[in-house]
# Entry
Amino acid sequence: MSDMKNKNRGQFPPNNRNQGMYFAIFLIIVLGVFLLIYLYMKPKPVLTYNEFLKSIEGNAIARVVIQGQMINGEFKNPDATGAKEFKTVIPLDDPTLLPLLKTNHIAIIGEPIRDGSGDFIWWIVIISVGMFLLWFLLMRGGQGGDPGRAMSFGKSRARLHRDMSGKITFADVAGCEEAKQDLQEVVEFLKSPQKFTSLGAKIPKGALLVGSPGTGKTLLAKAVAGEANVPFFSVSGSEFVEMFVGVGASRVRDLFAEGRKNAPCIIFIDELDAVGRSRGAGLGGSHDEREQTLNQILVEMDGFDSSEGLIILAATNRPDILDLALMRPGRFDRKIVVDKPDVRARELILKVHTRKVPLEPETNLENIARGTPGLTGADIENLVNEAALKAARDNRKKVNDGDFEFAKDKILLGPERKSKIILDEDKLVTAYHESGHAVLGHFLPLTDPIHKITVIPRGFAAGVTFSLPVDERTHLFKERLLQELMVLLAGRATEEIKFGHDWISGGASNDIDRATQIAHSMVCEWGMSEKLGPVSYGEKEGPVFLGKDLVTRKNFSEKIHETIDNEIRDIITDAYKKAKDLVVKYKAKLDKLAKVLLEREVLNSEEINEILGPSDKDRFPIQANLEKNDGPVVMKRHAAPAPEAPKPAKKRPGGTKK
Ligand code: ADP
Ligand code: MG
Ligand code: ZN
# Structure
């Protein structure tokens, strides 16, 4: 599993010579420092005090330096071993010594006693100067960005995967069939470029892998290299943006030079958005550097011919912010979408990652796949790992369904915080709040069925009601969204009805947040307000990229702004009122559920169904219309991506917490 990532990363220094150079200089400095230390501390023969006195009387000594009890001296002539200097220690105070020295006309030099820390500071100074010098040299190399220079620091730190044993192939990438098909062409080309070039066929220079984090873009790029059996250089966009001005550009140059030398091969630029953001949009320090790097990428991409056998792959999860120049013909003109896996793909990914995990025979991967909508490949890898850890903690030899259930809850809901001490009244409020969500989620026909409900704090939440979609949805119907709003607001509604308005809690803040986002999207993005019509009201949200965001402006007037605010508030207050009505309607069931929840702390879907009784969840009432042939047509799943559920920022993958 995760060790697979590093196994084949044969760290290949593409710039051996320069690295050797650094090392040599570093070594010279270190050796110099040691030499100095050695010279300074060169051992001198130690005389016994008797010998010393004898030497004085024998008139063999030229001078002495007295420092406390220490005496360093110089012979008039080198002694038998050739030493010209010596040292000795005065055993006790010897009042006869000074007169003796004087009478023998030996030069006496007195020195105050030091504790040696003075020398130490000198060493620090010398070493720091050495370090600084080294750093200075490196920096100069970086700034010039001239690859010819010996100290060039701009050498790409691209990693070259040469070791082909245990390579990654398409078999390791489960699902993403379309992406694999698109990339198969690249593989064919890399395997035998002549076949294509002899026909005069034009091969794309670059392909851009687009998809959410963790969907397997990096994995796919590696698999292409593995399939074609060619070297794989990878470098991450964020690595380009870190150092001194000019380094990024020269790294790009070296990366491509290295690639050409090793062609046919793949150059993979991960996180292209870090460096490929629209020019002129950046704020702050690395701005110029980024643009230079980006320009260099463009120059290099124009400068080579795909018949050289070089293919550039890049990955990003923000294609919308990329500089358009990157997407021009002859550059990354192929876009390969790597989707989040659907049920079937998730099952396949589970199979891939459980290859080496011993499973209980009755473990049902299909069920697990169905219960984990929205999880990416990376999430699933993590899920398998957590399940295996759980089994290991419980001292079992095999992983079972329960372990996966545990892992799923941990990943989707955050870890349980059982040790947190909860006041009884808090628990009571939480139990009612969560029961409110659950009851409405259970009885409203269009919302996701409730999967689990708990009053044990998880992650940041005091309690959790967790619902899971039965299958992937493509459309967000207005009616469904309205019901979703009711479920979201049901927690607060229950608190108000049960305990009175003075005793509502702040525990609903996240619910309210999300309800507001949904209502906002309904009005401003999805054109679901009758008053405002199907118009998009700007202020594009989405992950914040400061530079770009400053450019976007409102495309509506103050008057419209007010109407938008009113519409949002109307939608929410209306949903809240309806939620309260339903809470009153189902009060008896709600009391029962809250009571059991307080006792058992966690209830799963079967237990909830048992307590609340049957609901008429009919997930697609319009399907019935279709059969009768007199209603709106239901479009089955189609390729267009679903409108992202409101602000994915805080949303956990898959299910929803309330
Ligand atoms: P991305 O580059 O899109 O963020 P990665 O390629 O780094 O995602 O995926 C991270 C890990 O998740 C991979 O190393 C792999 O173990 C797992 N993974 C992701 N997608 C898949 C998939 N389709 N099949 C198998 N494993 C996958
Ligand atoms: Mg990646
Ligand atoms: Zn809530």
User: Anything to note?
Assistant: Residues 1-17, 141-154, 541-552, 628-654 have pLDDT under 50 and may be disordered. The radius of gyration is 37 Å. The CA atoms of residues 621 and 632 lie 11 Å apart. Residues 433, 437, 491, 508, 511, 658 surround zinc ion (ligand 3) (CB under 6 Å).
